[in-house]
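In this supplementary section we document a worked example of the pipeline. Step one takes a protein sequence of length 248 as its only input; no multiple sequence alignment statistics are reported here. Step two produces a three-dimensional model, which step three serialises into structure tokens for compact storage. The input and output of this example are shown verbatim.
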Amino acid sequence: MFSSDDRIRKEEEKLKESQKVFGYVFDNSTLLNIYRFFHNGYLDRFEFPIASGKESIVFAASKGDRFFAVKIYKVTASNFKNIREYASSRWGIGKISSKRKLMNEWAFREFENLKNAKEAGVTVPKPIKVYGNVIQMQYIGTKSRPALQIKDIEPSDKIVEQIINDIRNLFLKGKLVHGDISEYNFLYHRGKAYMIDIAQAITTDDPYSLILLKRDVTNIIRFLNKFGYSLNTDLVMKYVKGEADAFR
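The serialised model returned by step three reads:
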């Protein structure tokens, strides 16, 4: 499958070694996409798994002494039907019958949404590169342990303000609504909360954008108020939409 060139063979050996590390069997298409990161000089090796869900698996990977996160969308995602229905209603691409092609599109959407969010000043992992169903992005955490989700910390006033301002910036500047915000969709590292899992985000001109925005705000307020805050959904919604200068 690969060239007999020594350099390429060594890269293939690195990939095989990485497979043993994360102990998961991928389809050939995914392996080829991973290989492209090695071959094109973006990565040297995989380090350890970070998270695994129904749609994707995330690993820490490295290039020299730098760490990155690599998110791999599963071609055999168990909720493929739901993803296709969502893609059909939001992006008009639901007629794609190939799981591989649709997961490639899903990965590309997350990559583009991360770029958009980053440009809007939202605290998100910086996107680096996408090949097919595989995304390389900024790694959030230390070399020994990935960052905690905010569900596992007690948020400070600074974190509360940052999260709400990031939802606001995503809406007003990025023209996006995350659509699935909760305490599971933020990573805490060095005093900041990083918004993640943004593939399903919709544009603000979508007829359901305000409905999903209110759901996002309601979900995160419910979590934050467990720590003694008294945030009001209506006030926060006005602030997030740019209708007020403060949210409390």
